[in-house]
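Fold this sequence, please.
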Amino acid sequence: MEEKQILCVGLVVLDIISVVDKYPEEDTDRRCLSQRWQRGGNASNSCTVLSLLGAPCAFMGSLAPGHVAENLPDVSAKDFEKVDLTRFKWIHIESSNREGRMSQTGRQCPAGPELPALPQGRNALEQVKMLQRIEQHNARQPPEQKIQVSVEVEKPREELFQLFGYGDMVFVSKDVAKHFGFRSSAEALRGLYGRVRKGATLICAWAEEGADALGPDGQLIHSDAFPPPRVVDTLGAGDTFNASVIFSLSQGKSIQEALRFGCQVAGKKCGLQGYDGIV
């Protein structure tokens, strides 16, 4: 029998990465030392990492017919109805969010082109319908056939907060935790755990301070970070962490082992350009 896959549902985007000698000041011109285009997007990145780790995986999202496209539609609940859920052992749903961004790691300055402002969290209701379909499917399955579900709440958008109530595993970002006024991952987990459903595990990574998880037993689990000797590229580090945790848990590892593995792989990724070499 063919091994069941891990499905990642969400965005694929074009990342345009310009390298400059230092972070540019506002309203100034600076010569670009080099530039590259690469595939990005949370769900796409997570699927890349899962594949490199050796997991059978699949991606569901809107793809452009050519190299570049504008205003691609989000995956809808109607699209998701066509998915054969029996093929999957785990489904990871990323909160949809398209926006231009600029970040800095050493000499790298990843940036998106100037884009018109788009409504944020506009696909949350569609994602809830997808999650409810999985719940209905699981209700008809024996325990060993149920699909494990994880969701990520990455951006501090009110519409996305309803996703806390779905998923066996909920990843909440540092940005969302700080939006609620929390100053550490441990503080955030204790403060936000009441939003997740019964029996779920809430996970929060806090960059160089590592990551924490809180499950239904009330025990806080921590892993230190594993920074590389030299930070090269942090773009996609969070997606790498999420995917590595999911991979480890799907292999039957404990949450402690999964947290540690996620921090190790994410740390290694920060020392590399792109994803080749993380394994």
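Confidence is low (pLDDT under 50) at residues 100-121. The first strand starts at residue 5 and ends at 9.
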